[in-house]
Predict the structure.
Amino acid sequence: MRKINIYFLGTAGSGKTHLLGAFSEWLDFQKIDHVTVNLDPGSEDMPYSPNVDIRDYFTLDDIMLKYGVGPNGAQILGADLLGAEIDEIKEEIDYYDVPYVLIDTPGQMELFTLRRSSEIIINALGKDSVAVFLFDPVISKVPDGFVSVNFLMASSIFRLKIPHIPVLSKCDLLGDRELEKIRSWSDPDSLYSELGTGVEREIFYVIKDSGLIHNPVPVSAKEGFGMEDIYDKIQEIYYGGEDMDRILY
Ligand SMILES: Nc1nc2c(ncn2[C@@H]2O[C@H](COP(=O)(O)OP(=O)(O)OP(=O)(O)O)[C@@H](O)[C@H]2O)c(=O)[nH]1
Ligand SMILES: [Mg+2]
């Protein structure tokens, strides 16, 4: 069966783990088969029980003990060790004959996006891959924060070379007016009028010309909304006959 890998990516605490859990519940409800994979060795108190779990191989505590490093060093080593375990993880995933693989990534996104192991993982698990990229609402509700997260997503696209679906997570925390404002920023002119002068405007011209500004899909793991939108976007990307380059950039 064709498997589509769905990576949940975003800044620390943006809601990756809970969104994966909510999306998995929604798929269960729709009777759509899938498998959940946790690639975060530091994960605790998860809202779902992963079918495949990197913590069965090692945890951050194991790494700190074994290599005598602190929590930050352990995160970096953990990201690199992930790449070394990927063949066994793939074997575990392949045991399930399902169309969707939901993959939780380590807390700090740069551990996944900027280190070489991500390339090894994506290549090993298969080219039918998509990233659900979370915009943290607390960061994204101010114009320069919104632009900065767009740059982070651009860097993730640049690095991973897979289609990205931008989502605005934890939308239940935003008021209607805040949400409306964020949505209005998909129109560059509206964003321009809210940015400061100087370097902010210089950067604005870069992103306006490159088409880097994306309008994230509002979702909430807590209230369970937006799941169908994520699913529809994945269908569009993989079964809509779109040109992949156009979707990527
Ligand atoms: N109100 C609200 N809170 C949420 C939602 N999703 C996640 N949270 C909370 O946000 C915090 C972080 O959520 P996680 O899902 O652990 O985020 P993460 O990106 O996986 O975090 P790390 O892996 O630690 O970087 C937790 O306290 C969650 O309860 C949501 O949809 N609404
Ligand atoms: Mg997490």
